[in-house]
Amino acid sequence: MAFEEYKNLWVFVETEENVAKPVGFELMNPGRRLADKLGCKLVAAVVGGSVQDVAKTAIQYGADEAIVVEGDEYYQYSTDAYGKAMSTIINKYKPSAMLIGATNNGRDLGPRLACELNTGLTADCTGLDVEDETGNMIWTRPAFGGNLMAMILCPDNRPQLGTVRPGVFKKPALDETREGAITVEDVHVAPEEIRVKIVERVEEIAELVDLQGADIIVSGGRGVGGPEAFAAGGEVYELAQLLGATIGASRAAVDAGWIAHAHQVGQTGKTVGPKLYVALGISGAIQHLAGISGADYVVAVNKDTDAPIFSRANVGIVGDVHKVVPELIAAIKKQRG
Amino acid sequence: MRILVCVKQVPDTTEIKIDPVKHTLIREGVPAIVNTFDAYALEVAARIKDATPDTTITLLCMGPEQAKAALTECLAVGGDTAYLVTDRKFGGSDTLATSYILATAIKKIEETEGKFDIIFAGKQAIDGDTGQVGPEIACHLGYPQITYASEANVVDGKLQCKRESDKGYDILEVAMPAVITVVKTDFEPRYPTLKSKMAAKKKPIGIITFADVESIIDAARIGLSGSPTKVKKTFTPVREINCVKIEEEDPAVAAQKALDQLNADKVL
Q1: d(Cα B24, Cα B29) in Å, to the nearest integer?
Q2: What global pTM score does this model have?
């Protein structure tokens, strides 16, 4: 493998029905920093139905240029079509490394590409850096349910691939004046090459919970006592309403059947990065803490003064959720007049 | 129908504790279990077996000798035959090397027993959490894949899977053979009975070592040296935040103090 042929840092910008998933733009943030450190270009690789606007936006978020593969066969995700599109352009342009958002589709595509290209892939990264002496990517990721962090290298194969958790990095500021070249690559996939067909697509709008895009999240755990806390009149619901927050939950609350899985925050749920995270009656299992590693500010209410959640909280109230939260709501309302 | 289910024996990560002084994993006393998502995958396979006569389920596991316990457990809840892939030469493999070894072992089993129609695996193992081995096995074998399936049924000779999407779910269809990875399902895996446990203990477990696949495997692509990814170092996450902890008898006073702090930090 001729290493010097491989240059530039790519971000795969995933689209679904011509709309970009937020994580692709979030990755322009670490992507820009790493590309500057490496002294290389940051390139957005965009695949979709008709996605040149997405490519333009990716440049405004910090990419230097974009490579686009578009066509009807990419309007919805399939492993075969996206795999062929991406392996074709990777083999042509030879990026040194590529960041992929760790959505279900990103985690479907990543290993397929890694195997196809015979290279290393690091899953679900929460930290990204470059080794000073070698210029190799350092991929940092949680393992053992978040109990252990591992730094992974892919020193002898190119491109270096990693999937990165949504919500860990914040979208950079959009610069509408920023411009860059958009190259459209003509790669097409015949219908018979796509071996998995979508028979039916069911939308469950009621269940759409955007934890990863939320600025404020109010979450409830075992300590909120029951499902009523998440319903109108309940502590979690009312505080979330007042703050304009999205409702989250710990695994304990979801497993108890108090609230749907779509609300679950943590290693097996969603990784979130809100400006404010309020944990009500959540003890703070390491899996939960791994899920809120991107939160800017954490407020916790818990009866147990030794609860691990306080180790991650900026402000902690030791007390009963049922007593403290109504007072907190009253105090905020009073302050707002 | 011939089904293969990939199974991994893992430490129960919910039982792992951190040594508060040394910041290292305390592994002693942590029970070894069948990876949770593999158990769901086996249940999905067992349901196909329930619905389709003449279906057999073969189990495949890579790991040390002790991992036989996981296979025996699975033999009691739907598995018919089992293979353990074990050799020092396989140790230290990353996901690409592991999937290559497993794909090679599958080819080896198929030489004598015939082709598999479906290969199931859990969406990821709860210790490594990568979710990469399933799709990489599919790629090594040249098979299509459906990841993150919560149901799988055979309909008119094809496989239909329910897969979670951002907005709800998709029903996907694929011709067999195919690789399917499985998430937590709406149904719980079946329990073994006393009888099925006894029967499972009597079923032999086939062993596949490096020597068994030597003629069809590239030794440069396995083990630590054959793995493209390397672990630079590991560490336990240390979170150093100075929590302003408020302990007041009166919840109203506590709430006001917390709000004052939020105001001072300009959070609200």
Answers
A1: 15
A2: 0.87
* Proportion of chain A above pLDDT 70, given as a percent: 99
- Residues of chain B found within 8 Å of residue A149, distances taken between Cβ atoms: 234-237
Q: What is the CATH number of the domain that holds A332?
A: 3.40.50.1220
Interface test with B, best of A107, A128, A216, A289 (most B CBs within 10 A): A107
Quick one: A135 and A181 in the same domain? yes
Contact B7, A130 (CB under 8 A): no
Residue finishing a domain among A193, A218, A251: A193
Strand A148-153 with A65-70, pairing: unpaired
Q: Tell me if B181 sits within 8 A of B135, measured CB to CB.
A: yes
The pLDDT of residue B241 is: 73
B134: which chain A residues are within 8 Å (Cβ-Cβ)?
Answer: 111
Phi/psi at B184 (5° precision)? -60, 130
pLDDT at residue A84 greater than cutoff 80: yes
Q: In this structure, are A301 and A263 located in the same domain?
A: yes
Fold of domain B2-221: Rossmann fold (3.40.50)
Mean pLDDT, all residues of chain B: 93
Nearest-Cα distance to chain A for B265, in Å, is 9
Burial A84-113 (b: 16+ CB within 10 A, else e): bbbbbbbeebbbbbbbbbbbbbbbbbbbbb
ipTM of the complex: 0.91
Q: Which residue has the higher pLDDT, A13 or A165?
A: A13
Spatial neighbors of A19 by CB under 8 A, at least 6 apart, are A54
Give the strand pairing for A196-203 and B168-174.
Answer: antiparallel
Which residues from B are below 8 Å from A104, CB to CB?
A: 147-148, 163-165
List, edge to edge, every strand of the sheet that includes A148-153.
A127-130, A137-143, A148-153, B230-235
- B8 or A337: which carries more pLDDT confidence? B8
- Domain locations in chain B as residue ranges: 2-221, 238-268
Is the pLDDT at B23 greater than 70, yes or no? no
Q: Which of A166, A193, A220 is the last residue of a domain?
A: A193
Count how many domains chain A has. Answer: 2
Query: In 3-state terms, what secondary structure has residue A269?
Result: coil
List the domain range (segments joined by +) for residue A189. Answer: 3-193
**Does A297 contact B243 at a Cβ distance shorter than 8 Å?**
no
